[in-house]
Write the C-alpha cells for this entry.
Amino acid sequence: MSMNAVTSPPVTESTESVIEIVSLGLPTLHPSTRSIFKRLLDIVGSLVGLAILAILFVPIAIAIQLDSPGPIFYSQQRCGLHGQAIAIRKFRSMVQNAETLKSSVPNEAKGAIFKNENDPRVTRIGRFLRRTSLDELPQFWNVLIGEMSLVGTRPPTFDEVIQYSEHHWRRLDVKPGLTGEWQVSGRSTVKDFEAIVELDLRYQSLWSPWYDLAIIFKTIYVIVARAGAC
C-alpha cells in the first residue's frame, strides 16, 4: 500500500508571479483573521475531524488501493491567505496520472476554475469520497496548524490565481476554508467563477462567528443530503 502523495506539476513560475503581485499592495486584514473565537472553533473542529480521520483512514486507504493502485494521498500547492503558498493533501480520488490527462478533459466551468461533472479521471471510490467530502479529511491538519479555517474560501491553485483580475484577489483576504458560502449554495452546480467570487465576497461581508457556525451546520446537511456534489 503506497502512502506517497501524487504531486501536481511544478508551479514555480506561477508561484513567483503570485508572490510578486501580492508584494505590490498591502493585503486587507479581514476581521475573521483576528477572531479568537474563530481560531478556537477551528482548533476544536480540526481535532474532531482528525479523530474521524484516524478512525476511517485504514478502510479508505484500502478502498483507494483496491479501486486504483497508487498513492493514498494527492498533494498540491495552493494559495492561502493573501496568496501565501500552502501544501494541502486529499485522499486520492483520481487515477494516478490525472494531471497528465487534464488537457484531454473539457472544462465545463467559466473563468479561472476547472470543473467537469463527469470527469473520466475520477475513480469509482473517488466519486464516493467526493460526494461525502471524505477526500477532504486530511485538510483538518491544515486547519489545526492555522493555514486554513473550517469556513472560508476554497484554496485556489496558483495556475488559477495567475488568471485573476483585481477584484478576484479579495477572495484571498480570508483564510481558505474546508467549507464556505459556495459549498452550501450549490457546490459543483455553480460553474461560473464570477458567481463563486460573489459568494466568497458575500461571506466576507456577512461574516460573524455565528455565521461560521450556521455555514458549518448547513455543510453537514449538504453532505448528508449529497446536494450539489459530483
Summary: Helices lie at 12-23, 36-67, 98-101, 124-132, 140-144, 158-161, 193-206, 209-225. Confidence is low (pLDDT under 50) at residues 7-12. The longest strand covers residues 73-79. The longest helix spans residues 36-67.
